[in-house]
Amino acid sequence: MRANIRSYSILSTALMAAILLASSMSFGLAEEPKPGSITVSATGSATVAPDMAILNLTVQREGKTARDALDANNSAMAGVLASMKEAGIEDRDLQTSNFNIQPRYFYPKRRKDGQQKPPQITGYIVYYSLTVRIRKLADVGAILDKSVSLGVNSGGHISFTTDKPGPIIEMARKNAMSKAIAKANTLTESAGVRLGRIMEISEQNFRQPRSQPLARAKASFAEDAAVPIASGENTYSVTVNVRWELAQ
Length: 248
Hints:
4-stranded antiparallel β-sheet; 2 domains; alpha+beta; 3-stranded antiparallel β-sheet
């Protein structure tokens, strides 16, 4: 009987010691500090001369009836389309949009008794837009001039872009990453720590397709064009966010 009690006591002591050891190990693991981290954002950019222009041309016609306005608009736009094709614009670079018919109202003056007569429809206005991609910038001025002569009387918005922006965006991306690394090195050296492994990388890319002001742009004017054109340069930008583990 005493032997059994003694064996039980020894077993209990060993079990308690194992529990205490496991608890101390768990406590030690829980208390182990996690490595610090640093997150840096940087933006890189690259510029390129555009190789394509995008025009938005709108024909607006009025008539007493919607039919009259539409017929007049169709005739004018047909001439514009034919002119674009004669200038070498391919079908893939012509796209119609924003077709719209609106009534034109006349609002009578309010009568002396305060009554207001309802507005009257006096005619109709038809809008019809055409988006044109011009891949030869030297033709932009002449095409603009010709389109106005053929009846384009609204819109006229123009923007310059790059047909294949992939390589220039890649340059901006590399520039952004180089800036992020340089910034992170400066911060960690100042703090007396070192960069560890990269934990996360994300990016946001955006473009600025508008040309720079003429005073700063490397302007290229279309020679012998009725409308002088300055295409300038486009800037493509990429922002990266990089998180490193810190090595103390």
